[in-house]
Design goal:
Helix content is 31%, strand content 26%. The protein has twelve helices and 20 strands. The strands form five sheets. Strands 8-7-16-17-18-15-19 form a seven-stranded mixed sheet, sandwiched between helices. Strands 10-2-1-14-20 form a five-stranded parallel sheet, covered by helices on one side. The chain has a three-stranded antiparallel sheet with strand order 5-9-6.
Length: 385
Amino acid sequence: MKKVIIIGAGLSGLSCAHYLDKTKYDIKVFESSSRPGGRAKSENINGYICDVGFQVLLNNYDEVKNLGVYNKLDLCYFDSGSLIYNDGKIHKLYNPFRHPFKFLSSDLLKIVTIKDIKSVFKILFRNTSKSPKTSTLFNRMFSKQARYYFFEPFFKGIFLNQGLTNDSSFFHKIFKKFAYGKASLPKDGMSKLSESIIDNSNLDVSYNKKIVKVSNNKLFCESGEEEKFDILIFAIPVRNINKILNTNYKTEYFTNKTIYISSTLKKFDKSILLIPSKEISLNSIQCISNVSNSYSKDGMSLYSASTLDANKSDNELLKEFNMVTKISKKDSKIIKSYTLPYSLPSTFSSIPSKNNHYFCGDWNVEPSIDGAIKSGRLLAEQINE
């Protein structure tokens, strides 16, 4: 039986381990940190669950479904639709596919035109991917108001792409997932996804194993440990592959920053609040503990507030949070701040397999939870052949 070592216990590495043929391979996963999940993980900060950056898990991801772990996650759902902040007021935009009558009675119909509604149906039921960029597609299909108040802030937050320069085909896929599915969080945080994959597949994962060198079918850990292998799979960011192999593969990333804030006040129900204003750097705010009360403690509320401007200070973001939510500074405490310079890949690499070295990650498929899992599955299928 050949020995396979997978470097990285993120979603792509765990997916690859799940799909590899256990009758052919002895599989071990080495993770450099103390927890699995990669960028899709959580921390417990003094009783508060903080996901590493604001994240949602759609309940209709094909790859997650195929792993058979949805029923292990105890999903808690956001409300369908969004809240929109405009000139100091907050408006409710209902999902027209789930709440058509509420949508039609909404005051947001003042900014959503008949053309916008027709365009939504075209996107859902026709191939409208003629525009290469999402921004170009938005300009072609939606009114200025609809772009400004909903489509731009919502999808900038999803793609972490200020200019919405990503391929419009990816927008089509994600838009349909949101239209037909529901955004959720695992009850006990995003780490539950990777933990469920490990438990469901009975994977052998070793933590605090930082690999510093690979040579002659042997890898070397920072601790001084050595491990032999027949097949080595790199399921880590490209920059970390470069460090280990002394290569120079290129991948660019989008950045973002998320702060978690506690308060005695509970607002926004289970909705995501979009902030389209160019004068405010925050892109969205949500009361996470309204979605799952496990995220908070002692009856407190836990909010997450995110921006694409990773250079903003915590105090600047807290000031914006206080202004938008009308929660006083005295009643808001920063629990944790995450500045993420490598949030989502903006360019993609295809690193060819060489000898017994293989590679997977969302950076070679698509920047999403489903993309990371798909990358691991495709590589496992290739190796199994």
